[in-house]
Amino acid sequence: MTDNYLYQFMFMRFLFLLSLVLVLLTVSLSSQQPLCREDERSALLQFKDGFIIDCSASFDPFAYPKVASWTPEKEHSECCSWDGVECNEDTGHVIRLDLSSSCLYGSINSNTSLFHLLQLQRLNLAFNNFNHSQIPFGVGHLSTLTYLNLSNSMFWGQVPKSLANLSSLATLDLLKCWLHGEFPTEIFLLPSLRFLRVAYNQDLIGHLPEFYSSSSLQVLTLEGTSFYGKLPTSIGNLSSLHVLNFRNCHFSGSIPASLSNFTQLTYLDMSGNTLTGHIPSLSANLTQLTFVDLSYNKLSGMLELDMFLKIKSFSVLVLSSNYLTLLTRISSNDTLPQFHTLHWVLATYRSSQISYATKTN
Ligand SMILES: *[C@@H]1O[C@H](CO)[C@@H](O)[C@H](O)[C@H]1NC(C)=O
Ligand SMILES: *[C@@H]1O[C@H](CO)[C@@H](O)[C@H](O)[C@H]1NC(C)=O
Ligand SMILES: *[C@@H]1O[C@H](CO)[C@@H](O)[C@H](O)[C@H]1NC(C)=O
Ligand SMILES: *[C@@H]1O[C@H](CO)[C@@H](O)[C@H](O)[C@H]1NC(C)=O
Ligand SMILES: *[C@@H]1O[C@H](CO)[C@@H](O)[C@H](O)[C@H]1NC(C)=O
Ligand SMILES: *[C@@H]1O[C@H](CO)[C@@H](O)[C@H](O)[C@H]1NC(C)=O
Ligand SMILES: *[C@@H]1O[C@H](CO)[C@@H](O)[C@H](O)[C@H]1NC(C)=O
Ligand SMILES: *[C@@H]1O[C@H](CO)[C@@H](O)[C@H](O)[C@H]1NC(C)=O
After folding, report:
1. Is 259 within 8 Å of 280 (Cβ atoms)?
2. Which ligand is nearest to the CA of 128?
């Protein structure tokens, strides 16, 4: 008996000491700063040196020079703690760079040392002033990139095809980049892409590809570009889509009935195109819809307004400036609590006729 107790006691003591050692080991390891890699530090410094720091050149009034803390002095050499820089804790590689609104002013090309940061996963260069540089094709070397944000940064010119090299890319924001030329359709088909915004690039032309059902696109915004052509039936393959915004583009042809495949869709804006034909029956599966704007097109035919009223979350419908005849069983006097703007929208009709059927019950 006594032996047994002694044995148990010794064993507990051993366990206690073992856990103590483990705890100390963990503490000492985690208190160690990740070590910035020499080559990546000099790549960052070289990148910084390529620009003038001028906050008045940014579109963001709250821009401040993040790179001011980036200095070669030994006491500041831990580049992983520099403003806007984030490293992998194990390897010390720079994996995230957020230099949005950092007052960078000057040109950028494929020689930039930034493209030596081969482990980079997120890159945000929004709201700087790259002085009408083209988007460097070298960005295609960053094959692990999942997030790329170049919005509002005074780029200019063509989108390089090597963007399409980024097979892990989930988010691409090219809002207001002064892009022109033809947008590479391959980008729509990037296998991991969930968010694509190329809005407000008036001179950018392009057309939609045939979409595959493997697409994970959730947000597709082409507002204010010169994308043209028909909407392919295969757009119905984008069944994960939440937001579809083609406002003020140059799309023509009819609205494909395959849109009824968008069971996740909440926001649909195709206003200001030259779409023709009738509006397909959308409501059966589109139970998440809250906003539909199809105004300023050439849509015609009869539309059963009540199909939208059946959707619980629905709140805004804009159909003005078309050749539509709207049918509804609801009298114009009925109050529709979930439909705040309906009456206002109907009141602003220009070329669309409205036929009110009398309520039957
Ligand atoms: C911006 O571009 C203009 C015209 O090419 C040039 O004169 C100017 O020096 C550039 N500024 C910077 C900071 O690179
Ligand atoms: C890039 O660097 C190479 C070699 O250093 C040079 O020959 C080339 O002109 C540079 N390209 C640009 C666009 O600056
Ligand atoms: C595309 O990626 C591969 C490796 O992932 C790389 O070798 C190649 O240089 C990249 N192409 C461009 C144009 O960046
Ligand atoms: C891109 O960066 C700007 C500025 O930081 C931000 O407002 C915008 O939401 C970003 N876009 C995405 C898709 O994250
Ligand atoms: C959806 O994509 C598949 C391939 O994944 C294709 O065969 C099919 O034609 C597409 N659907 C439509 C309606 O085009
Ligand atoms: C609807 O989506 C499914 C996959 O989610 C796809 O197989 C089907 O082809 C799509 N239908 C149309 C008309 O695009
Ligand atoms: C609703 O979705 C189901 C399956 O996702 C599909 O079979 C059916 O055709 C859809 N209905 C309409 C009106 O599109
Ligand atoms: C709607 O209200 C007006 C005045 O309040 C009334 O004259 C009219 O008969 C009503 N119309 C219907 C269809 O109830």
Report:
1. yes
2. 4
